[in-house]
Amino acid sequence: MLEVRDLHVKFHNRDREAVAGVSFTLKDGEILGLVGESGSGKSVTAMSIAGLLPRKKCDYRGDVLVDGEDMLHANRALLRKVQGNKIGVVFQEPMSAMDPLMKVGKQVEEVLEIHTDLSPEERKKRAIQALEDVELPDPEEVYNKYPHELSGGMLQRSMIAAAIVARPSLLLLDEPTTALDVTIQAQILELLKKLNKKHGMSMLFISHNLNVVRKLCKRVAVMQRGVIVEEGSTKKVFFHPQHPYTQHLIECIPARVKVIARKHAEEEAEEAGQMQPAEGGQTVSADSGNAASADSGQTGGDRNG
Fold it and tell me: How many CA atoms lie within 13 A of 57 on its CB side?
């Protein structure tokens, strides 16, 4: 679905590359987390995928293939064809990303006006359906409101509606929950899971918070200074981090949260029939290479907690 090969991006006003040889793949229907601190190159990677790089201000090379089409070197015609239609983007700050002078509904259906021949009535119907899909109360009322009339959580849901209304195959989410409180954040993560399951769209979820990524993604790549330093299943990276930087990210997660995460991971494994009792009544993973005890303190997460 998505293949990034040896991506390099260097802005003319910077001494080092923002992205320095990044490679990864994203399968159909998969949710991949891209984690790292500010300045690690996460958002620049996403911009490269979406065709939003300011090309006159940077040097770039490599390959970014979306269903076989090269987005890194695409001309304007191809970008216009793909952006919003095949690739949807959800930004971090919905208030700054949305036009304050345009009603929410018109902004949601704008991509349909560009990419389809639907009538105004049909576009409105699709937009209201998208607002309903993101579980907004009274979507017809939201359609007619201005951005400043909505709460932060409702605005972010509206942004997601605008990103999915054309049924893209790839959804890029750049820190979509950072500006939200914990309760709304959890609701947005659950919504994304439902949309992924309902529409089967692939998602690249960008965040500086590894614990948030753990709740949504099955696989994660960790970036530092423009390089992917670790990649693997979310459980493996979260509980058995190998790279010092990943271990440092785990250290920043409160011990209580890690205990809850471990409990949830064990419950999921038990439901999948992947856990079996060991001697002494301890529980171990049936497919674990080192058969570490779940509460022995020998995982990467516990070592750094």
Answer: 8
